[in-house]
Amino acid sequence: MDIFDNSDYLKEEIDFLKEDGKTIGFVPTMGALHDGHLSLVRKSKAECDYTVASIFVNPTQFDNAEDLSKYPRFMESDIRQLTKENADLLFAPSESEIYPDAIARQAIPPVKLGALEKVMEGARRPGHFRGVVQVVHRLFDIVKPDVAYFGEKDYQQLAVIRTMVQQLELPIRIIGCPTRREQDGLAMSSRNMRLNKKERKDAAVLYRALQFVRNHWQKYSVGQLTDEAIRMIEANGTVKVEYLQLADGATLQQIESMDDAKHIRCFVAARINNVRLIDNELVLFKG
Ligand code: PAF
């Protein structure tokens, strides 16, 4: 696997591959890789001629300095895992490569996120999605992928990126890939590494609560479902729910009733001491 930290050299390499008719698949990450990331690499390998992964912990998408400083960094083992998956190239830039000056750090592409930015993660983490749009746009501009792969665990992020690509008319196909889960159902996340043994075990209640909603939506009202799911999660006192809500799978706006809904997902964000986890699950889809 080739490793680049310089965007100009990378752009030259990509131009060369494109002249040769190769399709480029791209998996942007912040490192601390787990099987969720690697499944995106495998999908890109299966669908594209050349797979680029990136590792960059983007400071502009963190609304909390402690969260940024504690974000796990494991470059050596990440490189080993990407090499094992036969990724073709890793782009691992420094902060000054992505944001060479104050102007670049402030420049945000003109994307109107509207209501998408005002709910769930957008409402709780001010500026987070602006930072995601900023860095993904910058990475897209360097890597110029034909296809880019993102996990459905960050479902709202996926919707934000699709909105950006649509509004800016970028010639990139965005593929959302299913959440990878541990045996007890906990969604794979780099943040799971920050949980101690007991917290890790307790965290699995998030998935059990999502399953409860998925399996009982025909029997209870939206209010009853969410109240019971929150009660389940908070029952043993370790996990604290920030939000748990049913939302339209396309607009991500909260729904109050199942009537007329075509695509509903249940979204949850919760804290276990200082670690914040999110997850979501399909509840209903009428094709
Ligand atoms: O999902 C992530 O890891 C990040 O938000 C992303 C898309 C790599 C942008 O920094």
- Just name the CATH architecture of the largest domain: 3-Layer(aba) Sandwich
Order of strands in the sheet with most strands = 1-4-3-2-5-6
Please describe the biggest sheet, giving its number of strands, its sense, and whether it closes into a barrel. 6 strands, parallel
The CATH class of the largest domain is identified as: Alpha Beta
Cα end-to-end separation: 41 Å
* Mass-distribution shape: globular
Integer average pLDDT: 96
- H/E element sequence: EHEHEHHEHHHHEHEHHHEEE
Tell me the strand percentage band.
15-25%
CATH superfamily (homologous) name of the largest domain: HUPs
Low-confidence stretches: none
Provide a count of the helices. Answer: 12
Radius of gyration: 19 Å
> How many strand elements?
9
**Number of discrete domains:** 2
Determine the fraction of residues in helical runs and give it as a percent range.
40-55%
Query: What structural class results from the helix and strand content?
Result: alpha/beta
Assign the CATH topology of the largest domain: Rossmann fold
Task: List the ions, cofactors and other small molecules found in this model.
Answer: pantoate
